[in-house]
Amino acid sequence: STKMRSSVADGDTVVTEFYGRRTHTDVFQTPMGPLSATGRSVESPFCQITSFRNGKLYRDRMYFDVLTILGQIGVDPSAGSAR
């Protein structure tokens, strides 16, 4: 599930903070390579920044805390392996 925490608009840009809960059921692409599904639960905040130009979607970016997610699925990012 995903819940919105806050949202702020300034001109043609909207910044929204979310908090998400998911189960790791798919391959997760990381800088260390793909990680197979673990079936573990993940809870993490993330942020979406959406920009518009001339009333149309121009850019949409999302940021999240990869280290928190990796730890919750059992990966030690410093070692690059599962615990």
In brief, what are we looking at here?
The protein has one helix at 66-72; strands spanning 2-10, 13-23, 28-30, 33-35, 41-53, 56-64, 75-76, 81-82.
Folded structure, characterized:
The protein is mostly beta strands and 83 residues long. The protein contains 1 helix and 8 strands, in the order E-E-E-E-E-E-H-E-E. The protein has a 4-stranded antiparallel beta sheet. A two-stranded antiparallel sheet has the order 3-4. The chain has a two-stranded antiparallel ribbon with strand order 7-8. Strand 5 and strand 6 (56-64) form a beta hairpin. The longest helix is centred in the C-terminal third of the chain and has 7 residues, at 66-72. The chain is elongated. The mean pLDDT is 89.
Secondary-structure map with pairings?
Blueprint: E1 2-10, E2 13-23, E3 28-30, E4 33-35, E5 41-53, E6 56-64, H1 66-72, E7 75-76, E8 81-82
Antiparallel strand pairs: 1-2, 2-5, 3-4, 5-6, 7-8
Largest sheet: 4 strands, antiparallel
Question: How many strands in all?
Answer: 8
| Overall pLDDT | 89
Total count of helical runs of at least 4 residues: 1
Low-confidence stretches: none
Characteristic terms for this protein:
63% strand, 83 residues, two-stranded antiparallel ribbon, single chain, mainly beta
